[in-house]
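Exercise 7.
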Amino acid sequence: MKDLLKLSAYDYHLPEELIAQTPIKQRDSSRLLKIDRSSGEYTDLHFSDILSFFNEGDCLVLNETRVIPARLYGNSMNHSGQVEVVLLSREEGDVWKCMTRPGKKTKVGESVDFGEMKGHVEKVLDDGLRLIRFEYEGVFNEVLDRIGIMPLPPYIKERLEDKERYQTVYSKTEGSAAAPTAGLHFTNELLDALKKKGVIIAKVLLHVGIGTFRPVKCENITDHNMHREYIKVTKETADTINEAKRRGGRLVCVGTTSCRTIESVADENGVVHEFEGETGIFIYPSYKFKAMDALITNFHLPESSLLMLVSAFGGYDNVMKAYEHAVSERYRFFSFGDAMLIV
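Solution. The predicted structure, written as tokens, is:
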């Protein structure tokens, strides 16, 4: 029996050609692998088939964060050469926490010219990130939209033709450094069909941050220092979820971000509470879920905290067998890939 606290337990073989490089033409025509947690059985479907899973009164939780074009390329004003900066979170005013490369060109006092914007490194943090103050004319988000690039994960080599395909159709509040990718499969038409069926839609907010770019490296996963991310659950959303649960509806989270948000604000009785702040919740096998009843998610990287979360909910053996099946059936993996429904 594998030790589920060891990082190596979450490794699996994935042929490189199964890593999806571009979004599928129609969002909801991607494939869907449904897993039954109690039996371990899995079923091959298409994402649009998900409509048949829902009952009237179920509650679907969406993360309405919107990705900002957070990757900037500029030239060092102190030395020669290009500098890459990825905006992670706004700290105060025009000061942002950022990832930079190369580090030797982003020491305290260094400045970078991005054309319509300049950045000045004010502090190097203990984890290697930088605090950078930006100078510009006009509205920050408008300037960023002109000069920034969508921060696609490093395993995606193809150019993204349409920036909106790295946004969910319900994205609203800007602030993420990466997309909540399970939501990329939904269309407005599918959401309308769910509403007509009597499914309740609840929206939460989690701005995806640095953890998306940093793998787990500790062989004992309990030693992993989980990143913190901004979340918000309004009183209206909490009341909507609690009422749906009280009436017997199932709580279905779209993506690990919605799951982590809900599980961060639910008490031991499964009651969801209003909250605005940060979460650093790290979910791995042995975790007892408090509120979520089903999960819609993508296929995740080997040895990632997201695969650990999915294994905690779906059951380690169930999930790893399903991943083997997905590889053999040539499902598409990761951000632009296919989806799973775990019930």
